[in-house]
Design a protein that fits this description.
Length: about 170
């Protein structure tokens, strides 16, 4: 972690050798990240750290809701990726997207991004073939393509490297 005002570098005392997709809480006092054994956290005030008990090693790309009450993330379910959410304390884990696992190539839903008001989550999905931007209510309802095929010429790609592909601002 770098202090941009002083130039000081701080090495966080993390148990994991590799971390991915760190995200700051809206209050700036906690970082949640994808660790070797699942989603984990570190409190910056006292450097306490822990893991979310309901998380698996396949959970990735966590992102706090704007009010800090929820965390959206993607997780592996058998042969596909889905979007999940849980409360910021790790409770209330729920799967928000549900692709048909019986398809020969089940679609994937990845890279969640909260709307500024926390009412919606945007994500990428290849359910129509090419990667497209979808949006749903924070509870997983009313899933729909935001632009349909209009943006297909942009050639959205997802490379499975914990990318933050979408960002939603005011």
């Amino acid at each position: 972690m770098a202090n941009l005002h002083t130039g000081e570098l701080l090495s966080l005392p993390l148990d994991d050798r590799a971390i991915h997709a760190p995200t700051w809480s809206p209050t700036g006092d906690r970082i949640v990240f994808a660790g070797e054994q699942g989603l984990a956290w570190i409190d910056l005030e006292d450097m306490r750290q822990g893991r979310f008990p309901s998380s698996s090693a396949w959970d990735n790309s966590p992102l706090f809701s704007p009010d800090g009450q929820w965390i959206a993330f993607m997780g592996r379910v058998h042969n596909r990726w889905e979007i999940f959410s849980m409360r910021a304390d790790g409770s209330g884990r729920r799967q928000l997207t549900h692709s048909n696992p019986k398809l020969e190539a089940p679609p994937n839903n990845v890279a969640p991004a909260w709307s500024p008001d926390g009412r919606y989550i945007a994500f990428l999905s290849d359910r129509d073939g090419p990667w497209r931007i979808y949006v749903m209510r924070a509870d997983g309802s009313q899933q729909r393509s935001m632009f349909g095929a209009q943006l297909d010429k942009l050639g959205f790609r997802y490379e499975w490297a914990s990318e933050r592909v979408l960002s939603w601002s005011q």
